[in-house]
Amino acid sequence: MTKFKHKAVDEFELIQNYFVRSDEAPGVITGIGDDGAVLQPDSGRELIAVIDTLVEGIHFPDGTDPFDIGYRAVAVNLSDIAAMGGRPRWMTLALTLPSAEESWVSRFAEGLHAAAAEYQVALVGGDTTLGKSLVVSVQITGDVVTGTAIKRSGAQVGDQIFVTGTVGDAAAGLDLLSAGNPDSYLAPRFLRPKARVEYGQALTGIATAAIDVSDGLFADLCKLLDASGVGGVLQIEKLPLSTELRAMSDPETQRRFALSGGDDYELCFRAFTHRAGHSGIPARRRTRLVDAGYRLDRADSDRRRDVRRRHLDLRQ
Ligand code: ADP
Ligand code: MG
Asked: How far apart are CA 148 and CA 154, in angstroms?
C-alpha cells in the first residue's frame, strides 16, 4: 500500500531502523518483514489476545514525550494480560502518524522497546501510516497454562476484594501534568504505568476473579461484581492511597481520583483472605463486601442507587 504519499522518511526505513530488533525471541518463527508473523504457541497453553488504542489528546495530553507514549502503549496492554494471569509473548503495533518525523519515531520506539524488554514481549509486526492525528494501537498475545486464565466472573458473596498497590495516583499525576506541574512520583504513575504481570501470574490458582483498574476503581470493581453476579459496598475509608496523593490534595479530591480517576493499572481481585495472606502477594486489603456505601452519595446519584441495590442484593 502507498500509505506514505508525502513521506519525509521512507516507511521501510522507519520500520527497519526503529522497530526491527535483531535478537531472537522465543516462539517467533517469522517476525517483522513478511506479510504476517508466524508464531509457535507452547503446547499445553492457551492464548490470550488483547488490544488497546491510545489517541493523542484523548488518552494522553498533546505534546507528551514520545518515549512515554511508546512505553505506556505497551504497559496498558500488558495490564490486561496481567489481569488474566497471563504471560506476555508477542505484540503488533499499528502506528498512525500526522508526520513522519524521524526524531519522534526514534524516541517513541525507545519507549516501546524499553517496556517490551522489561516484560519480555517481542514486537513481531505492525502497520505504519500517515493520518490526521496520532493514534497508537498495540495488540499483545499472551498465554496461560490451559484452563488457568483468571476471569472477572468468580467472586462470591462474603469474599474480600484486594488491590495491588495504591489507586488514584495516575489521575492525580495527569492532573498535575495538565497544570504544567509534573510531580516526581505521581506524573510517572500516569506516564509509565507498571503492569502487574508478576502479580497476575502469582494470582493463578489463588484469585478466582480479577480485573485491571483502567477506568477507575469504582467502575472496574462494578464490572467484576456484575460479571460475578454479586454485589458489594466499598468502604471508602479503607481505600489504599499513597502518601504522595494524600499530601497533594484534600480527602474529597483523593477519593475522586481513587474511585473514578482511572489509569492506575493495578489489579483488583477476589481471593480467600487466608490464601492471599500467605501467598507472598503484597496486596493491600481494600474493601470487604459489607455496608458502607452511603458515602458514595456525594459522587453520583446513579451510582448511589447502584450501590444501594448491590447492598440490598447482598443482604438477600
Ligand atoms: P504489508 O503491506 O504486507 O501490510 P508493510 O509494508 O505494511 O506490509 O509492512 C512490512 C513489514 O513491517 C510487515 O512485516 C509489518 O508487520 C511490519 N511493520 C510495519 N509497521 C510496523 C511497525 N510500526 N512496527 C513493527 N512492524 C511493522
Ligand atoms: Mg502484505
From this structure: 12
Write the pLDDT tens digit of every residue in 115-149.
999 999 999 999 999 999 999 999 999 999 999 99
Q: Mind listing the pLDDT tens digit for each residue in 168-217?
A: 999 999 999 999 988 889 999 999 999 999 999 988 888 889 999 999 98
Supply the Cα-derived Rg of the chain in whole angstroms: 21
Question: Looking at ligand 1, which residue's alpha carbon is closest to its atom 3?
Answer: 35
Quick one: which ligand is closest to 116's CA?
1
Does ligand 1 have an atom closer than 6 angstroms to the CB of 1?
yes
Residue nearest to atom 18 of ligand 1 (CA): 126
What cell was used for 60? 494522553
Please list the alpha-helical segments (H only) found in 192-234. 197-203, 217-228
Grade residue 158 by pLDDT with cuts at 50, 70 and 90: low
Cβ of 77 closer than 6 Å to ligand 1, yes or no, is no
Dig out the grid coordinates for 312 from the structure.
440490598
Q: H-type helices in 159-242, by residue range?
A: 169-178, 186-191, 197-203, 217-228
Which residues are close to ligand 2, an ion, with C-beta < 5 A? 35
pTM (2 decimals)? 0.86
Taking the CA of residue 47 as centre, how many other CA atoms within 13 Å lie in the half-sphere pointing to its CB? Answer: 13
Give the whole-angstrom CA distance, residue 85 versus residue 260: 24
